[in-house]
Structures are given as structure tokens and as C-alpha cells.
Design brief:
It comes from Echeneis naucrates (Live sharksucker). Helix content is about 30%, strand content about 25%. By secondary structure, it is an alpha/beta fold. Strand 8, helix 5 and strand 9 form a beta-alpha-beta unit.
Length: about 230
């Protein structure tokens, strides 16, 4: 199993949105039951300045991006102000988790147990999963195999949508918000075609935005995100 242990944190002053960076040690239990230390995984976390969070959110990222993008465009802060506990991780092999070995090659489906264990260790279940681009290889297996652990699903032109059948999509009852930029004429449109088979979904098309549409228009992204979260 994966064991995540926070090594340090920097919290905001009282009354402000709490934001901190944490490095996680990953331990894998081998067949003989011995803990084998792997390379660190990195995440950033935000929480409401006061009171309990009303929902947990896990933010993933694409191959050219990291958790830092969610910090830079204000998504972590926006979620905290909306009353959410939000965690943005650097996926294995990328960003500040670069030395961590990925559980599957790029473009192949990762074991659903990876995100399951991350969510369990960070106490995020049931969780809203935000999944752009590359991270589809992680989020889609988790969604299909562990619906009970997913509060809602927000795919942003993810990869690997073609690896599942129409019937599999229709079996997912989790509320889903499909987001893509209208200038993303390749992966955006292909993923939309497949994801539209989800039983309980709505779609936001971001005008003038490309593949990383949330970076192209953070204001529209945040409005769509908070509106959807308020419906849960």
C-alpha cells in the first residue's frame, strides 16, 4: 500500500486562506510484508480559513504541468474560499514527484488502487476529481472501479477516454462536469464524444481557449467550477 506522511507545512496567518506545500514519503509493502521506501510524492493543499470543509477536491494535471499551475492561477485559493478542502498532487515522474516511479507508462491505464490509496491516506473520500489531459490515465480507472469514493468528476479533455465502452460510461452515475476549450479540436472533441456517454453530465465549452483551457481563461474556469460544486 501507499503510505503518505507529511514532512512539513507552511500555514497562512489567521483569517487568511490556508495554503501549504507538503512532501509525502511513499512506502510500498512488498510480497513479504516489508515496507520498501520509494521516492517522494509532492502535493499542495488548501482549506477554508475557518470551519469544516464541505467537500474534498483532488486536482491532477497534464504532462507539461504540475500542481503549481493550480496555485498560480488561483484555483486552490478559489476552492478554499468556496469551503472546500483541495489537494493538488504532482503525479509520479512529473514536477516535484519526478523521482517517483509511475505505476503505468504514459498513455496506459494506471491501477485504480493508486488514486484510491492517495485519497484514503489524505482522507479525501468521497472526493471531487479534477482531471485534465494526461491524468485521465489515473482518474478514469478510479472513477469506473470506485464510484462510491467519487463525489463528482470534472474531466478537462483527458486522455484514455477511448479505452472504455459506451456501456461502461453509462453505468457511471456520479455527477460530472465536462470542460474543454473550443480551440482544442483534437483531444477536447474526442474526449467529449466519449465522456458524453456518462449518465449524469453537463458540459462547459470555454470560448477561445485551447487544450489547457483553465490556464487560458482562469476566471471562466473558476466560475464554472464553483457553480458546479454548489450543485452538489
Amino acid at each position: 500500500m501507499w503510505t503518505l506522511i507529511r514532512l512539513f507545512n507552511l500555514s497562512a496567518a489567521p483569517g487568511q486562506t490556508g495554503l501549504w506545500d507538503s512532501i509525502q514519503k511513499a512506502l510500498w509493502t512488498d510480497e513479504q510484508g516489508h515496507d520498501v521506501k520509494l521516492s517522494p510524492l509532492f502535493y499542495r493543499k488548501s482549506e477554508p480559513a475557518a470551519g469544516e470543509a464541505r467537500v474534498s477536491v483532488l486536482l491532477l494535471h497534464g504532462i507539461r504541468f504540475t500542481s503549481e499551475n493550480w496555485l498560480d492561477i488561483g484555483t486552490l485559493e478559489t476552492l478554499a474560499k468556496a469551503g472546500c478542502c483541495a489537494v493538488a498532487i504532482d503525479l509520479p515522474g512529473l514536477g516535484r514527484s519526478k523521482s517517483a516511479e509511475a505505476p503505468a507508462p504514459v498513455g496506459e491505464l494506471a491501477p485504480a488502487s493508486f488514486l484510491k490509496e492517495v485519497c484514503e491516506q489524505l482522507r479525501l473520500s468521497p472526493v471531487v476529481v479534477i482531471s485534465p489531459s494526461l491524468s485521465g490515465m489515473y482518474s478514469l480507472p478510479f472513477l469506473f472501479q470506485h464510484q462510491a469514493l467519487v463525489r463528482a468528476y470534472i474531466p478537462v479533455a483527458p486522455i484514455c477516454t477511448d479505452k472504455f465502452t459506451t456501456e461502461q460510461y453509462q453505468s457511471v452515475k456520479v455527477p460530472s462536469l465536462i470542460v474543454y476549450g473550443d480551440q482544442d479540436t483534437q483531444l477536447g472533441e474526442v474526449s467529449l464524444q466519449n465522456l458524453s456517454n456518462l449518465a449524469n453530465h453537463s458540459v462547459v465549452v470555454m470560448k477561445g481557449a485551447g487544450h489547457p483551457c483553465y490556464l487560458d481563461d482562469p476566471d471562466t474556469w473558476h466560475k464554472a467550477l464553483t457553480h458546479f460544486l454548489n450543485t452538489l
